[in-house]
Amino acid sequence: MENRSPKTLEVPLTALKDGETAILTSIKAGHGRGQGRGWGFEKRLMDMGLTPGTKVTVVKSAPFHGPLEILVRGSRLALGRGMAERIFVEREKK
Amino acid sequence: MTKKKLVIALAGNANVGKSVIFNHLTGLHQHIGNWPGKTVERAEGTLHFKGYTIDIIDLPGIYSLSTYSLEELVSRKYIAVERPDMVINVVDASVLERNLFFTLQLMELETPIIVALNQMDIAKKKGLEIDTEKLENLLGIPVMPTVAIKGIGIFQLLEKAVEVIEKGQMAKSVKVKYGEEVEERIAKVTRMVDRIQFWYPPRYVAIKLLEGDEEIAREVRKIDPQIVAAAKELADEIENLHGHSCPTVITSERYEVAGCIAREAQKLVPPKKPPIEEKLHTLTTHKIIGYPVMIFSLLLMFYSIFTFGGYSSELLSNFFHGWEPLFASSFGTGIVGKLVWGGIIEGVIAGVTIALPYILPFYVVLYLLEDSGYLSRIAFLMDNAMHKIGLHGKAFIPLMLGYGCNVPACLGCRIMETERERLLAAFVTTLVPCAARTVIILGLVGAFMGIQWALMLYVIDLMVIFALGRLAFKTLPGEPTALIMEMHDYRMPHLKTVLKQTWFRLAEFIKIAFPLIIVGSLAIKLAEVLGLLEPIASVLSPVTVMWLGLPAITGITLIFGVLRKELTLIMLATLLGTTNFAQVLTPVQMIVFTLVAMFYIPCIATIAALVREFGWKKALSITVFEIVFAIIVGGVALRVLTLTA
């Protein structure tokens, strides 16, 4: 993170263009922290490799606001759009 | 020499070739059932090896040992409580990092374990070379390379497993080391847990308490609530130190360990040109081309299944009915003869002529699509549409199967993750017009009123599916659903595994549906022989005649339709003495009758499938709801149509 640009902003995963790679910063599952509603998703996402600090590449999204195809830790995942909107990433500097 | 018994469990992520290894090991000596009290499948098999009788348990494919899903909970409990002699962790070499994340969790359970490094061929194609020896050293447990689909390495795997068990002492596996702040607190909780009796290892309990695992917290609280409170405090400390919740920190660090090991053990040599599998993936998930490809594949699938089904169903039916005269001459045509033939044997024939011609090919195609990886691409393309009825992409698969037959469709709802999603998907599936209902729609409305009216009924059906799906989604409590699904690389399906899975599913269907079909057809035949049908029809007449405006005789045909829906039309022809329905029914009556027949009840085999998956109560609720719903829809349609006519 040495050359972090002051302009880098947290954006939801859905804001990335096809083929763009970014670093995951947080998952906002809503409803307070830790357990409770929404916790199952956050845990599931992390179990699939989506932990903070991980590189995520958006390959493409299905049409009509469909799910995203992403690459994470060498595996290819389909992610519902609603969930992708709650995953925040920081764009990598070119 | 006495035969000794061993138990070996297979564990690993989904789609890593676990069931292929299971099939190689156990052949046909398999038993597939459910875990006690759970709708989680339990596959078990036995084999004999070097004087041992070995029980192999194929645990469900999971990504973690937390308690997100029933499958995870069942697997964890099994390993911790039943303590198999050995766990074979099947690992997909082409997605090493994520698979090792699961391996590390198994190691934390402190169970004897060896790794089967599977799909080495796919990894190679992707340009991944894995140093097995290095991986073995890094993990501290034996690693055996396999290519299960070709049977490579299976024997050595088994040999190694037995050898390790015989040696008695396990190689000391490497402890998963977290960051200093976390380790410190794990140690503190471990010391507290050390003092109590618990079936999980103390360090594991400590980690899980810090991770906020609800099941383990509940159990520990019963013994000593102070430990849980202390762990909560320590977890908060970690959260303050790291700025992320404690479970996030622990999961991240565990993944870091998995990542380090994976990077050390594998070498990446990117292939010069993208392999054909990659091109196929791009094509089948393409924004535009993906859809026509999907529609074409599905049409081809339905066309071939229905062509095969129609042809062989008739062949089988003719074959069985060829025996009827012989049967009649030897058993007579008295009450007993009628009951035995018309009740029991007709019931069996009905079952066989559905099961073999339709359900068998359905399963074969379904498993081929699933194994190859295409099913997950279809789910990807259809996710958005399915969200409209509160489900996600995967639900499209059972829904689509429903157009063929509701029974495999209901059983297919198991691919959904949670109990709630399964129930929702199954409910919606029972509203899909299956092949039998298509016969009614096309044979009555389509033939006598024109195809546009038949199409209108299909549109109405889609609207009903949409409306009721949404309604059920809103009423059933629980989290909204979302798609998180792996799309593994395309690969050749393993035909033998596909056929075996089909065979066991078919056997399951026969076990579920046949008893009910036979009892049902016997009951109806008995009512007919005793002359109860007319009285029943008149009892039903307030509904059929007054509310729905149909001839009283339809009450009888609707009863027969419970067995097989197309019987409503066949019986109508028999009882009215004509197949020219235009002479006996008005157009409005045709539409009302077809609407009712479409919705009024899942057929008896579907009810059996619902009972199997969700229990009597939920199956009955769905059945009763659909009867009431169909009657209301029919009555409303009658009034609307007469008003507008």
Weakly predicted, low-confidence segments of chain A? 1-6, 31-37
- The whole-angstrom Rg of chain B is 29 Å
Strand order of the biggest β-sheet of chain B: 2-3-4-1-5-6-8
Number of strands of chain A: 6
- The SS-based structural class of chain A is alpha+beta
Total discrete domains of chain A: 1
Number of alpha- plus pi-helical segments of chain B: 27
Biggest interface between chains: A-B, 40 and 46 residues
Q: What is the terminal-to-terminal distance of chain A?
A: 13 Å
**Structural class, judged by helices and strands of chain B?**
alpha/beta
What can be said about the biggest beta sheet of chain B?
A: 7 strands, mixed
CATH H-level superfamily title of chain A: Ferrous iron transport protein A (FeoA)
Mean pLDDT of chain B: 88
- Low-confidence spans of chain B: none
Report the average pLDDT across residues of chain A: 82
Note the overall shape of chain A: globular
